[in-house]
Amino acid sequence: xKLTTAVLLAGTAVSAAVAAAAVTRVRQQERHNGQGIEVAxxxxxxxxxSQVATNHDLAxxxxxxxxxxxxxxxxxxxxxxxxxxxxxxxxGLVTDEQRDLFASVLMQNPAIRAYWxxxxxxxxxxAATARDERGLAFTAAFDRAARERQTADA
Length: 154
Fold this sequence. Notes:
By secondary structure, this protein is mainly α.
């Protein structure tokens, strides 16, 4: 093989390696930006949940017609807890096993159970329409934990 051919092949290999590294870096950057958006959106949601869970006048505006504002406030406290855990899950900080364990533990809390009983169908519909595998898995884990808890209580 001629020296020029060897140099050309070596240059091509180096270029391919640099391009692969650049593609990897761009994908990491996209994932990081997506996670930043997730965190920002969760912060807005949890701030709102904190306000509606502690402000009777605000809860009165947002509570379903058939629900007492104080009860709604309690359920929004529970929802805030679920949203915080959901964020950790969406960011990939929770294993599948941990998700199942935490769902089971959180479902022991009466406020979490009451929230799930009231808003279960909305959470399931939300997960299904988002077409998000982690969201679907999260919702399924909590739904399983709620059913297991109901069976244990029966």
